[in-house]
Amino acid sequence: MGTKKNMSVSFVLIAIVLLWLKTYTVYKFNFDIDIENKMQEFILFINPLSFLMFVMGLGIFMAGRKQKIFVVATSFITSFILYANVVYYKEFSDFITIPLLTQTSNMGDLKSSVGELVGWTDIIYFADALLILALAFVKTPKITFKKYKSVYAAAFYFSAFGLAFFNLGLSESERPELLTRTFDREILVKNIGTYNHHIYDAYLQTKTTAQRAMADGNQLTEIENYTRAQYKEPSKEMFGAAKGKNLIVISMESTQNFVIGQKVNGQEITPFLNEFIKDSYYFDNFYHQTAQGKTSDSEFLLENSLYPLGRGAVFFTHSGNEYMSLAERLKENSYYTAKLHANNKSFWNRDVMYNNFGYDRFYSLPDYEVNEENSVGWGMKDMDFFDQSVEHLKAMPKPFFAKFITLTNHFPFELDEEDKFIDEFDSNSGTLNRYFPTVRYTDEALKLFIEDLKAEGLYEDSIIVIYGDHYGISENHNKAMEQYLGKEITPFVSTQLQRVPMIIHIPGHEGKTISTVTGQIDLRPTLLNLAGIDTKQDIQFGADMFSEEQDNFVALRDGSFITEDVVYTKGVCYDKATGEPTDGASCEPYIEHAKNELSYSDQIIYGDLLRFYEKDEE
Ligand code: GP9
Ligand code: MN
């Protein structure tokens, strides 16, 4: 600490400030972090500081030689971590995570290109550490290597804590539920900083590693017996109905089923889908089963026919697990597999997870031409996304499995004037009001996409599956929803609102509405059976939606469930016919069943049990 007589600066403080400024400079020059306003810039600027104070700050408890060694070593180690991220980012436009490092294909890519990524001039990234090293040898009264008095040390750490909380508070207000809900690594780093991101990542890793270590293969045997007993024979007529055809699956952002066939202000909300349904299979009792991981949870359900987790996003927490993905099974059967979504590839940790699922290709942001004109709200407009995607489809080997994820109909449901084909609703919820025109917009985008597929000769060779990923209108908007639906929203109605559209179009097949109670968990077996791929031996919790043995049972992630006759939610059993609470006895037998389903699925994920799976010889 400085005194008036002899002004000197603490060696520890110099190191902190240098590293802090360097980190911020690297943020600006080496990472492509999208800054939308001054507050975000400010958060980005302060976010390295608390970590550096905590770690480098330990130097204030030491003096002289000890302090010098500690500060110099910490400077180099921290610089190295930052530099490793710079190198990694050059190649992958993403930040390092532990699962990424252990994924061999990624590392292989990195090793082969490391020569091109690293150069002598990179020494500049260590300039501050070298300066610190030099200062350690300089004898000047201007720098002090003293230990802090305990009162100063306490004040120092008190400030570090304060700063950390201040940083988190600002981030929370910029990005609510940052650590549990939305998981874009870029947003995470932007808010908590690159160093804290590593700590957070290490925490997730330790937790999963411990749970995984405690698991053993016997657990899987019990679960396997359970899922085998649940297996439903596919319908003879539908098994292989799409064999050899391309499989185009479209996940519609935030689209709930209540808009299908309905109007707002006397105008149809989904005119295209309403027509498309007429010559497709339409499942009108199909539920989303997602939780905090939203879109990524729906993708997880589709790929694995496993339930997502109750807390956090499994795409983030268990991306290193062994899975039996839909993509992998299709690939084994000579499909080319691709994901198409015009967003940051690291959003929801997709780049890592898709790699694990075995996708051949992920067409993400850099594969699209995105500009001011063709963007709104969250990014590229659906119409342009589909339009540019057709070119990608044309380039794919056939048959392909192409999975699309739309974006425009995402909260806060913004739209340019020229894209509003219908008027907003008029209620106290701006969200619900805007929802209708954005749903209508995506409907139009789908219409144009299908026209394009026809023009390119892809339509007749493809089966097209369209479904909603999760709800768009949360319970916060119940008042406005009551106004639109013209009825009270009880927990029963809320649960029914979790239905999302589900449409399967197969060339040459006539349209049919199927009202079996089904959910996203059923997608994997249904699609594989349509492709003529048997799933009898697979561990999955869903069943073919065309099966005559379908049990009309869907469990939602919160333990609610729906059968042919009842809806069970928040501990109350409702009669579907009346929507009124009924005798608990009608729900009783299923309560255990729902619990078992969810807990078996959780056990698979927490224990990474599929690594013990062995296929029986037939
Ligand atoms: C982002 C998109 C939206 O890429 O999939 O995710 P959500 O917020 O709906 O989970
Ligand atoms: Mn979504």
Automatic annotation (TrEMBL):
InterPro entries: Alkaline_phosphatase_core_sf, LtaS-like, OpgB/LTA_synthase_biosynth, Sulfatase_N
Enzyme Commission number(s): 2.7.8.-
Transmembrane segments: 7-27, 42-62, 69-89, 117-138, 150-170
Protein name as it appears in the record: LTA synthase family protein
Pfam families listed in its UniProt record: Sulfatase
PANTHER family listed in its UniProt record: LIPOTEICHOIC ACID SYNTHASE, LIPOTEICHOIC ACID SYNTHASE-LIKE YQGS
Entry membrane topology: Multi-pass membrane protein
